[in-house]
């Protein structure tokens, strides 16, 4: 029902899209926006630390199993590369929106969500760090959402002025 409400033309300004954990508080920076940003930053950092401890436990399991130095190196390098790539992809998604809508099929690169899903799972610490660091600057994805929202408001304002002139 709510998607039908957004697609129908209305006399008022367009509705802003909610951001995960922030809803629409990013528009006016009200409704506990600063506290939400702090919670996302701390929560992302805590999740990254918990994930690192989990990976440490897994690495200790490899050491106990005595799988060999080559396997240990491959695991460490693989996780480090996936973490760096996941961080970069998440950060760019906040700025450019590439992955933000990829799952819904609108705006993202075709099939990019499925092709990098395993990379993002292995590099989950990078995703948490990107969320945490971005929340120190703004609500993750706010700049992109604001740009899109202001463009829709500008277009809606232009349509109203054309109608009003008839």
Automatic annotation (TrEMBL):
Q: Which protein, by its recorded name, is this?
A: EamA/RhaT family transporter
Keyword annotations for this protein, in alphabetical order, are:
Membrane, Transmembrane, Transmembrane helix
Q: Where are the transmembrane segments?
A: 34-55, 67-87, 118-136
Question: So which domain of life are we looking at?
Answer: Bacteria
């Amino acid at each position: 029902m709510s998607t039908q409400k957004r697609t129908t033309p209305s006399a008022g300004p367009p509705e802003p899209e909610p951001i995960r954990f922030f809803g629409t508080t990013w528009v006016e920076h009200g409704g506990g926006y600063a506290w939400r940003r702090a919670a996302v930053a701390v929560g992302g950092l805590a999740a990254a630390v918990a994930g690192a401890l989990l990976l440490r436990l897994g690495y200790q399991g490899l050491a106990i199993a005595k799988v060999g130095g080559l396997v240990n190196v491959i695991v460490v390098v693989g996780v480090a590369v996936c973490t760096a790539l996941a961080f970069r992809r998440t950060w760019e998604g906040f700025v450019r929106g590439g992955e933000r809508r990829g799952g819904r099929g609108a705006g993202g690169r075709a099939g990019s969500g499925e092709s990098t899903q395993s990379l993002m799972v292995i590099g989950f610490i990078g995703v948490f760090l990107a969320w945490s660091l971005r929340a120190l600057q703004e609500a993750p994805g706010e700049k992109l959402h604001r740009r899109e929202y202001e463009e829709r408001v500008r277009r809606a304002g232009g349509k109203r002025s054309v109608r009003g002139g008839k």
